Sequence to fold (241 residues):
Amino acid sequence: MSMQICEIFSSVQGEGQTIGTPAVFIRLTGCNLRCPFCDTKYSYKSNSLFNKEELILRLAAHNSDTFVFTGGEPLLQAKDLFEVIGRIIYLRKKQKRLTPSFIIETNGTILPTTRDSLTSTNTHIHYVASPKFYSDTSYSVDTVINLINIYDAELKLLLFTDTKNVDILYKFLLSIQSKIEPDNVITIQPGLPEGIKDIEVPKYLQQVFELYQDLSAKINFPTRFIVQQHKWIWEMNRRGV
Ligand code: SF4
Fold:
């Protein structure tokens, strides 16, 4: 049996609340959305089929203790993904090594089923739900809320400078306010517009930060403003970092 995987590389977690953690990234092929600002369009299609068993053995033998499954949308291959995670946990235990941490970065459109995501496996998984509701009009707020309430997902929202986006983001936060625990810390990440030049980024980030300050003053959730650090260590559009 095989899985569609776009790339595997070692890097540092560059975003969200696990920022700074060294990790192996497994980018799964395919996405059910087409966001105009997407910085991983190359992941929509790839010819790389990985033998599932070889992938499991390769990751279980790796010296990293953090694996980030990203995409694309990794939950499109949920059944295989949870099988891989379960087997890595099993093999690491057999090797008497530390149980690794797994991060699943999802666009928040798919809720894993209980059968896919076994409870014992889930305790080692940190979900990051990053809904792109301003580019996906069919968005289900309930799916995002369930990811947060059932799977304890970290909510990560992209903030751009256009007013329409700020309005949508604010309305979204108001709509979930009474439905999730008030101590959920929400990550606000500046979204970079397509084609922005490296030299233009600092000024742009300052503008987003000002919008963030206004936004955070209006809502009751604790938030963190986190810039994608891997784009500063390497170039803004470099692949495989
Ligand atoms: S959900 Fe993520 S990977 Fe999919 S199109 Fe949007 S930005 Fe790209």
